[in-house]
Amino acid sequence: MLSTINRMGSVTFQLAVLCIITLYSQAESESAELYALGNKFFDWRMSERPLQATKRNIYNYNDDLEVLSLDKLKDNKAVADDMMSQLRNISVEDLDGADMTSYSILYDMLNTFIEGYSFLNYSLNPVNFMEGIQRNPLAFVNMMPFNTVGDFENYIARLQLLPQQLKQMESLMLEAIRRNTTLHKVSVMRLERQIELLSVGDVTKSVFFLPFITLKDSSIPGQQWSDIRRHGYEATRKLLQSYRMFLNWLRAMYIPRTRRSYGVNKDYYEACLRWYTSVNITAEEVHELGLKEVERIKERMSEIMERQNFTGTVAEYFQSLSEDQRFFKSSPADILQEFRDMIKHRINPYLPEMFYEMPKFDIEVVPMMSDGPAGRYSRPSPDGSIPATFIANVMHPRNMPVYTFMSLAMHEANPGHHFQISAAMSANTPRFMKYMEHPHYYQAPYAFPAYSAFTEGWALYAESLGEEFGLYRDDYELMGRYSSEIFRAGRLVVDTGIHYYGWDRDQAIEYLLNITAKGRPFIEVEVDRYITWPGQACSYKIGELTIKKLRKMAEEKLGDQFDIREFHSSVLEYGYKPLHVLTEKLKAWTANQVDTVSTRSTSSHLQIHTLTCLIVTIVTCLYTRLV
Ligand SMILES: *[C@@H]1O[C@H](CO)[C@@H](O)[C@H](O)[C@H]1NC(C)=O
Ligand SMILES: *[C@@H]1O[C@H](CO)[C@@H](O)[C@H](O)[C@H]1NC(C)=O
Ligand SMILES: *[C@@H]1O[C@H](CO)[C@@H](O)[C@H](O)[C@H]1NC(C)=O
Ligand SMILES: *[C@@H]1O[C@H](CO)[C@@H](O)[C@H](O)[C@H]1NC(C)=O
Ligand SMILES: *[C@@H]1O[C@H](CO)[C@@H](O)[C@H](O)[C@H]1NC(C)=O
Ligand SMILES: *[C@@H]1O[C@H](CO)[C@@H](O)[C@H](O)[C@H]1NC(C)=O
Q1: For 61-73, how does the pLDDT look when each residue is reduced to its tens digit (9 = 90+)?
Q2: Ligand 5 site-directed mutation target among 306, 307, 309, most atoms within 8 Å of CB
């Protein structure tokens, strides 16, 4: 009798173990399948976008360029459909939290692309003054390694493919002409100058020829090197010729057929808004949010101006500061030093109050080599051999008042982009999440998203942390912060103004001139950018407002128990994500914190739970024994 009971008990135990193993391996295999699919997706994307691969130190496609064609665009939809059906085949019940997030993100990327397909007609203009190799040819050259003969051969192969790609662009743009979906003239006007700059008369003075001027590594024998140079010269010469032909084509065929209206079709516009913001938001909602934010920030600026007894407008206020030597650094070296000191002595000491996890690598401040925005962030290589850098524009010290430095440093460096990107890079996530492809904005919404509402929203939120933790040391720095913020809010108003409410270019320019301290040339480029990329400029503020809303929700639910450092960990965890995934994640986090807090406050909860478990176990045992 006794032995029978024992044997029964043992069988029960074995069954239970078997049951657990089965469940576990079910989860394991679903997880492995998801991981494999994520990698397949990433490999596909890298093979389609050779330049993106090279930038991520994936050198398998260094001799290749993207194929631009209508057939390719159509084929990609079928590939995405196929991957989606494979993804749907994975059973989500078996995935844990981290895998569930990966699943949601891959699902969102594929789904966004597939839904975007209905706007294929608007994805046919692959070049504009913000996009294309002509915009930053140095980046095209510098991303490549130049050590071995093979490296040079790869680069020459790319130079030889470029003329073909320009022809492919023409075909696509002809298709855009046929379908009545060309860009506005302001999107391509500056192309003429950009291309003219490339096609210098002397081939050896071309940016594309730079790698052939001096050999870094002398391991290549002299005869081979002169062959390489000769091929490089020939490829560059042909390429410059192709660019000149492309420019002629642009002038003769495309520019006369550019679209008349500044704004685009409203359905297409709202699809772009959803694509960039990764939330379901309408143009009217964005516009209202913008107006409200502009008023709120204006109010803050007025308070400061009143405190300083200044009676003019915001523009006049900044005008008056622009004549004050105190606010300017005289040399590039001084600007860089100011940023370095600021990050080291004024920002970094506060970071432990905001975060539990710090980036693996420090950030370095370096000067920008060609003109561009006031600052930019560049990620480190995974092993840190290429450092993370905050690239500061030091070309126009007179346009860089020091009271704008703090918000810029917090945005680009700590705790803005550097913290977000570092968290993404060190997360234990599939490659498609860690090294997300940078999309062609001209293809939106028929493109894979990279969640700029999250990344730029985070960076703008980081600027606001400076205010909360008292990092802006005086009213001038606060005005610098507000001027950067109101600019982002104003974008919501004018972007929707142009594409939804029929504003013309001048009205948009005047609106931004009225509320910001920026000069007309700067604002004109900005507005042309909004005309070129409908909806893109709205991602920053929408992302920031979403993070702030989620934080407020958590603070209200958690009261004293709210820990800002844990909140930040949860926001940054797993890296890039769409705002709707972020929202679900933070809701779950908050609910979980509430549970933890209540467990902490009444430990009897735990005792009851243990007791329940005990009873269930006993009953189960009795039951199996009876059977
Ligand atoms: C879905 O899974 C089933 C069973 O594992 C398999 O037979 C089928 O081919 C899968 N479908 C896709 C699209 O992967
Ligand atoms: C795209 O353009 C083609 C050709 O002009 C037209 O037949 C088709 O209806 C358009 N598709 C959409 C979704 O607008
Ligand atoms: C082209 O599109 C615009 C809207 O962008 C529209 O007003 C115009 O009628 C269209 N032209 C043709 C020929 O379809
Ligand atoms: C987006 O909003 C519209 C209008 O409120 C609604 O009809 C639609 O179902 C929403 N879509 C999603 C994906 O939430
Ligand atoms: C502003 O004016 C008031 C009253 O005239 C004066 O007390 C105050 O010091 C002034 N503030 C500044 C910053 O000049
Ligand atoms: C700019 O400001 C002026 C003066 O306050 C005002 O008349 C004008 O309507 C404003 N422009 C826009 C586009 O808001």
Answers
A1: 999 999 999 999 9
A2: 309
